[in-house]
Amino acid sequence: MTNPTSGHTVESFNEEMRREHRTVLQMGALVRHQIRNAAKTLRDEDSEAARKVIADDLEVNALDIQVAAHVEAILARRTPVASDLREVLTVAKIATDLERCGDEAGKLAKLTIHFFDSPGIAPNYQLLQEVSKVAGFVELMLQESLDAFDARNIDSACEVIRTAESLDGEFRSALRRLMTFVLEDARTIGQFVDVVLAIRALERIGGHAKNISGYVVYLVTGRDVRHEDLAAIESDLKITDSIS
Amino acid sequence: MIEISPPSKKSEKNFTTRLESVDEFDRVETVGEMFVDRPKVSCLGVSVHYGDKQALFNINLDLGRNEVLALIGPSGCGKTTFLRCINRMNDTIEGCRVDGEIKIEGAEINHSDADVVSLRSKVGMVFQKPNPFPKSIFDNIAYGPRIHGLSGPKNELDDIVESALKRAGLWEEVSDRLHTPATGLSGGQQQRLCIARAIAVNPEVILMDEPCSALDPIATARIEELIDDLREKFTIAIVTHSMHQAARVSQRTAYFHMGHLVEVGVTDQMFTNPRQRLTEDYITGRFG
């Protein structure tokens, strides 16, 4: 495909497109840090660091608003078409998904504050391990989806979608493991619910990574695959490949 | 109910090779929906030479019924030359040779027996710059019906003038000054007058060569609205340098480059996901 961030006769258009592309990647880096740091605050039992994760979300929110304003200006002033239009729409959608990922990371940080700043039974270390594990998993998905966006790589995007389809299974198996702790000690039921909600928040981040990968397929091919499963997407892409 | 000619099954023979550069022209043919079912105008293998210089290369393109077809491309790409082939305007250029078939309702327009005057009553043309005759508004509209013998008694001519002005969306503005000079109208009104003049002879096809390039945005919007209304009755081909105008007014878009028809497609698709790299580069402002 034509690279939407270069080649325009009007160089300032190239620069505007590059700027939004970079801003989204910058947002992605911030959100990945938030996810990693939020999971670390749980491991380290560090409420202060958790408060910083929540505060850092303001920066992600500000970038989200900045991208929305710039996208509005580009649409109004440049009226982009074809791959340029898809790039602008993709950037806007990715920014929205990343902003929501930041919110989910904030929920994780709030769990740290809830567990370690409040009186009560100290949380079961093994319960928290499940959170760290899923956090590492979805952070990697998010990174790979953003790499796919940066490189406009459909294969990598499909790989993330494949991973996302297995995320539900991961969530269920984590739930089964957590259940065993509850069965052993009913006093952990409150913690169990909190941890399940935290893992559910992380699962949503995985869903956003899947969305971002879907946008990459749209960006490159023009096909909206958000509501299709991977088999249908790959089948369509094969047909398109064989034509072109 | 507007009956639009659907893309034809003939388009199954479309070509799918992607053009990556101008140098590849020699081995690549047009991509997209060049043909429609039951075309109003059918062009097959049309080439145009101006003396030794070839301006159009083997163009295959149909104009469908009740369709607005936008012709886009950089300056000098051949879109106006193609437009002028459809009413034999190129006949007036010395050294110009048109090869290939151009049929309107199945009748070859370049046939030696074809009547050019009758052809031009069937195929109206609107130019870039409004060109009203130095006559009254009424006489501008009445001119065509008179020379084509379409008008009978005076009141019949009045009806033709009123109907054409109404269809062109100009009646309300000029009904009280029909016998004043047409040159006193604003640019946008003059262009609508030219459209009214074209439709007064009941054409089947209207050719428009950058009809809004000399108009302000409001006058442009009125012409675009008019084009949309006229589509109910006529087939329209419009040459435009405005990508957004092509996107707004047409159902299909054809992209020309250096005398070649590179791609034809449904307008929505052409402006969101064109198949040819060259088309994409042009509509996104990468060259022109």
Question: Which residues of chain A form runs of ≥5 with pLDDT under 50?
Answer: none
**Overall pLDDT metric of chain B:** 89
Uncertain segments of chain B: 9-18
Largest interface pair: A-B, 20 and 19 residues
How does CATH name the architecture of one domain in chain B? 3-Layer(aba) Sandwich
Oligomer state equals: heterodimer
Quote the distance from N terminus to C terminus of chain B: 38 Å
Mean pLDDT, all residues of chain A: 90
What does the main sheet of chain B amount to?
Answer: 7 strands, mixed
SS strand fraction of chain A:
under 5%
Provide the helix percentage of chain B. Answer: 25-40%
Work out the helicity level of chain A: over 70%
> What is the H level of CATH, i.e. the homologous superfamily of one domain in chain B?
P-loop containing nucleotide triphosphate hydrolases
Distance from first to last alpha carbon of chain A: 12 Å
Give the biggest beta sheet of chain A.
Answer: none
| E-strand count of chain B | 11
The CATH topology label of one domain in chain B is Rossmann fold
Can you characterise this structure?
The complex is a heterodimer of chains A (244) and B (288). By secondary structure, chain A is an all-alpha fold. Chain A contains seven helices and no strands. In chain A, helix 4 (125-151) packs antiparallel against helix 5, helix 4 runs parallel beside helix 6 and helix 5 (154-184) runs antiparallel to helix 6 (189-221). In chain A, 41% of the residues are buried. The model of chain A has no long low-confidence stretch (mean pLDDT 90). Chain B has 288 residues and is α/β, with parallel strands linked by helices. Chain B contains ten helices and eleven strands. Chain B has helices at 79-85, 116-122, 137-147, 154-167, 171-174, 187-199, 217-230, 243-249, 267-272, 277-283; strands at residues 31-32, 41-50, 53-63, 68-72, 96-104, 107-108, 123-126, 205-209, 235-239, 252-257, 260-266. In chain B, a hairpin with a 2-residue loop joins strand 2 (41-50) and strand 3. Chain B is globular and about 55 Å long. Classes of the chains: A mainly alpha (244), B alpha/beta (288). The interface between A and B is medium-sized, with 20 and 19 residues.
